[in-house]
Each structure stands twice: as C-alpha cells, then as structure tokens.
Amino acid sequence: MCDDDMSLCMRTTVRIKDELLERAKKRAARQGRTLTSLIEEGLVLVLSSTDRQPFREPVKMPVSEKTGGVLPGVDLNCSADLEDLMNKP
Predict the structure, then answer these.
(1) Could you report the per-residue pLDDT of 6-58, keeping only the tens digit for each?
(2) 12-47: buried (b, 16+ CB within 10 Å) or exposed (e) per residue?
C-alpha cells in the first residue's frame, strides 16, 4: 500500500487506545479507504503543523535560594497531606 512513487514502506506495530482505533476504522470505512491511509494522513498533518511552529527557547524556571526544606510535619511523599496543606485558607 505504498505511494505510486515506488517509495519503500515499513511495517510497524503501534499501540492505540481501543476506542480511538474503532473510531479510526469506522472513519476509514465511511470514506472507502484503508486504516493505513487514514493513519498516514494524520501523521502528515501533525508533522507538517509541528514543522511550521516557531522555535521557542527553553523556559528557565526560577530557582529558590532559600534553605531549610519543607514546613514541619509536611511529608512530600504523601499527596493527601500536600493537597490538604494547599487547600488550607
């Protein structure tokens, strides 16, 4: 199922969520085309739009110069405690 330009095709395996795959199969069937052609078209669209995005410098996050660690009684390994702390007025 390669293009008419005789380009080489590669067979590969990808993991796709079941619901997304079913939607893609239905769309391909409605359009009278193969699932492969639908996936290829999607990849072309995503890759071409990414190529047109302007280059952005990496964001540099500020680093605190404070020392001393966390507040007393705060366990960074306990997400429930952290959520409680963040939700305090």
Answers:
(1) 578 888 899 999 999 999 999 999 999 999 999 999 999 888 876 666 777 88
(2) eeeeeeeeeeeeeeeebeeeeeeeeebeeeeeeeee
| Calpha distance 57→16 (Å, rounded) | 32
Tell the residue number behind the tokens 């302007």, with chain if given: 54
Q: How far is CA 58 from CA 12, 18, 51, 52, 89, in A?
A: 32, 35, 17, 18, 34
Q: For residue 77, report the phi and psi dihedrals to the nearest 5 degrees.
A: -90, 0
Q: Give every CB contact of residue 35 below 8 A, 6+ residues apart in sequence.
A: 24, 25, 28
Query: Can you say how many angstroms the Cα of residue 18 is from the centroid of all Cα atoms in its chain?
Result: 17
pLDDT, tens digit, 9 for 90 and up, residues 55-78: 778 877 777 677 777 777 777 788
